[in-house]
Design brief:
The complex is a heterodimer of chains A (464) and B (234).
Chain A (H helix, E strand, L loop, with lengths): L7 H11 L1 H21 L5 H17 L1 H14 L3 E5 L2 H15 L3 E4 L3 H5 L2 H7 L3 E4 L2 H9 L15 H12 L7 H18 L2 E4 L3 E3 L4 E6 L3 H7 L3 E7 L3 E2 L2 H16 L6 E5 L15 E7 L3 H5 L15 H5 L1 H6 L10 H11 L17 H5 L6 H14 L5 H14 L2 H13 L2 H4 L5 H5 L12 H7 L3
Parallel strand pairs in A: 1-10, 2-3, 2-4, 4-7, 5-8, 7-10
Antiparallel strand pairs in A: 5-6, 6-9
Chain B lengths: L1 E4 L3 H6 L1 H13 L3 E3 L9 H5 L3 H14 L6 E3 L2 H14 L9 E3 H8 L13 E5 L2 H5 L5 H9 L3 E2 L15 H4 L1 H13 L6 E4 L2 H14 L4 E4 H10 L3
Parallel strand pairs in B: 1-2, 1-3, 3-4, 5-6, 5-7, 7-8
Helix pairs in contact in B: 2-12, 10-11
The chains are: A alpha/beta (464), B alpha/beta (234).
């Protein structure tokens, strides 16, 4: 997909100023998720679970090649086709071949953030293939021609009225249709698509190496249908999604669902390990199963000793939900498929720091994300690494550097520091509010009022 | 008992009266207060923005200034977190890290104070938890307990642990988001006369936004309110 992260500030400003309802919708939904999450973990030792999950994921990532080859071998044994894609365009080529070979004209698609990351829909459409998103939230934003605004709830920024309006326009439902009526209208249309599509596309929440199993979590049943009804199923799986053992899976399924929405587990979990009718004994399923293992920058990120831990991410969205910065804008401000705190550490790692620059700074460093991550990714520390690198590479503003140089040089010269403090206290407010950087402060806030005298002065005079 | 006060740069310039109150409060508890006058800034603004060499210079200076202190007490949660949690990453001998305490933390955890006085009888307050105090220092109950034991009603505030949007340079790098965050805090405030916090940055942010909006509410440093608790009424 196209990356617009460099415009973070302008995009955030526009969302806050022009569509205030987005802030309300996102805040309300994320707060519900956070409350549900808290309840879901209430009777569990969250710390023990997250330490265990961290260990499993870190082990898998540090033995990634071995586990991926094991997964590939198991899948191939059962008749699946396994493809390796280093880049987004490799993914496109693999799809082009499959689509051409089978004369595919219609695709049903289960929700996959990786497919967004590699820009799959526009590519398939450029091949003349009709693509239908079958997750209700994805379907809504597909109608609106918008990217997802949240990892788990792609249309989190939309209100019920927004959905009513677009459904009225496109599907002819009444302007005041109930949510049930809207879902029924989508279901009718999608049901037909499931039966007529030649190809179903999904992502993959986990890939178990030991058994070659792709696990998919969902609530609507559309993933089950997309992956079993059409004659061909292609699963796009990021290489970091691997788990070593079958025994690891059930706990990961639970912590992902609990962290995401507070559900004990998703309403549906699909385990896919081969095409239907395969000699190794999968009676049901599509005639052909393709698994595309996608790198797209992950190997480079894994080799980076300071930020590789971001790859433990299970895409639960808990860090977005808790994030007060994310809540003000939703995901579109970030200009990248993954938004919020985890997006701000993944984007520079997968795309490049220069291309995604303000994102590591799009955080007040409050640290709330670190508290909720089910795999203990130290997100604030990783954000800080990217901030350091941005400074070291000269990508931040010269003005900021000058101000901090000045702070450091006076901060190590106490006499000068006290003099500077005095001068700062003497500046009239009209001057202060127009100083560089403080201009940004005073656009929305009154300038701080300096105390009449500094504490240094008061101390020297004597405190009664 | 002898402590060295680190007033912090914001405290020195913007909250000098609150720092005076901190001195009075500590003295009233028979604590001798020393004020090393060569102190400047802990370096947090530079660290936070990713300027590590500058942060290290200021950290080294601060560690030297407080080298002989038994305890360093700060009327600031986030600067305390800088000394305790970040200095070990910046300095080879960060001895100052484990001797540093935020004021309320020092009172409760070191001095074992359970009640300062009854000077806040009948007062309705809201308490804003600064993020670094809360998440890095684990400072959650101590300030609230001190306020309540002095007779104040600390009114529940659904957003009391959510970031105010200050975040150091974040407040000027993403000012629109920062202001929206402050608005969310202000919009959810219960009906109180005063909001109290241990962090100057948060107070400047919330007060600056409230004054711009015309929201009439007082924002006060924890140190001043605790001194009021001690000496009995404003």
């Amino acid at each position: 997909m196209e990356v617009h992260s460099r415009d973070y500030r302008a995009r955030a400003r526009r969302i806050i100023a022009e569509t205030p309802e987005v802030r309300e919708a996102v805040t309300a939904a994320t707060r519900t998720f956070v409350d549900n999450r808290r309840e879901a973990y209430a009777d569990l030792d969250e710390n023990a679970l997250s330490r265990w999950a961290e260990g499993v994921k870190s082990h898998a990532l540090t033995h990634l090649g071995d586990y991926l080859e094991e997964a590939e071998a198991r899948l191939v044994e059962r008749g699946a086709h396994v493809h390796w894609a280093e880049t987004a365009s490799d993914v496109h080529q693999i799809f082009e071949l499959i689509v051409r070979e089978h004369g595919v004209q219609k695709v049903v698609k289960a929700k996959s953030m990786l497919s967004e990351e590699v820009g799959l829909n526009p590519f398939l459409e450029s091949c003349g293939v009709e693509v239908l998103e079958t997750d209700l939230g994805e379907y809504i934003i597909q109608l609106l021609d918008e990217p997802p605004s949240h990892i788990v709830g792609p249309s989190i920024h939309k209100s019920l009225d927004d959905t009513r309006a677009i459904f009225h326009e496109r599907l002819g439902t009444p302007r005041d249709a109930s949510p049930e009526r809207l879902a029924a209208a989508a279901r009718e249309l999608l049901r037909d698509a499931f039966l007529t599509a030649e190809l179903g596309i999904s992502g993959g929440n986990f890939l178990v190496a030991e058994t070659g199993s792709i696990a998919l979590i969902e609530n609507e049943g559309n993933i089950r249908l997309s992956t079993s009804v059409p004659p061909i199923h292609v699963a796009l799986v990021g290489i970091e999604k691997v788990l070593p053992r079958w025994a690891d899976l059930s706990t990961f399924l639970q912590i992902t669902a609990k962290s995401a929405t507070g559900q004990p587990v998703g309403c549906f979990v699909s385990i896919i390990q081969g095409p239907g009718g395969s000699p190794a004994g999968e009676p049901d399923g599509p005639e052909e199963l393709h698994v595309v293992l996608v790198d797209n920058g992950r190997t480079r990120l894994l080799a980076d000793p300071e930020v590789w831990e971001a790859l433990r991410c299970v895409r639960c969205g808990a860090c977005l939900n808790i994030c007060p910065v994310y809540r003000q804008t939703g995901g579109h401000a970030y200009g990248y498929v993954y938004s919020g705190p985890i997006g701000a550490v993944l984007a520079p790692g997968l795309v490049g720091l220069e291309e995604t620059l303000p994102l590591p700074f799009a955080s007040s460093a409050c640290g709330a994300c670190a508290d909720v991550c089910p795999v203990r990714i130290p997100i604030p520390d990783l954000l800080h690494v990217w901030r350091q690198r941005a400074v070291e590479r000269g990508l931040t503003s010269g003005m900021e550097r000058s101000v901090l140089d000045l702070l450091a040089s006076t901060g190590t010269r106490p006499g000068l520091f006290r003099w500077a403090e005095k001068v700062a206290g003497l500046l009239p407010e009209q001057v202060v509010r127009h100083l560089p950087m403080l201009r940004e402060w005073s656009a929305g806030r009154e300038t701080p009022r300096a105390a009449g005298r500094t504490f240094h002065e008061l101390w020297d005079e004597g405190i009664e | 008992m002898r402590v060295s006060l680190f007033v912090t740069c914001l405290g020195d310039r913007f909250f000098a009266d609150a720092a005076v109150d901190a001195v009075r409060l500590l003295r009233s508890l028979d604590v001798e207060v020393d004020f090393p006058s060569d102190q400047t800034c802990c370096g947090q603004p530079a660290w936070n923005a990713g300027h590590v060499p500058q942060a290290r210079q200021m950290a080294a200076h601060t560690a030297e200034v407080f080298a002989d202190a038994d305890y360093v007490v700060l009327p600031s949660g986030s600067c305390t977190a800088m000394l305790r949690c970040t200095y070990p990453r910046l300095l080879e001998s960060p001895a100052v890290a484990e001797r540093s305490y935020e004021l309320a933390e020092f009172l409760v955890d070191v001095l074992k104070v359970t009640e300062l006085g009854r000077g806040l009888e009948g007062r309705r307050l809201a308490y804003h938890h600064g993020c670094h105090a809360l998440r890095e220092l684990g400072l959650e109950e101590q300030p609230v307990r001190l306020l309540e034991s002095a007779g104040a009603e600390v009114v529940p505030w659904e957003m009391d642990q959510e970031c105010c949007g200050f975040g150091g340079l974040f407040s000027v790098k993403a000012p629109e988001v920062s202001v929206a965050m402050a608005d969310r805090k202000l919009d959810t405030l219960p009906d109180v006369e005063t909001v109290v916090s241990a962090d100057g940055g948060c107070l400047l942010q919330l007060d600056g936004r409230a004054r711009r909006r015309g929201t009439r509410i007082r924002f006060r440093s924890l140190a001043s309110v605790l001194w009021e608790a001690r000496r009995g009424g404003a």
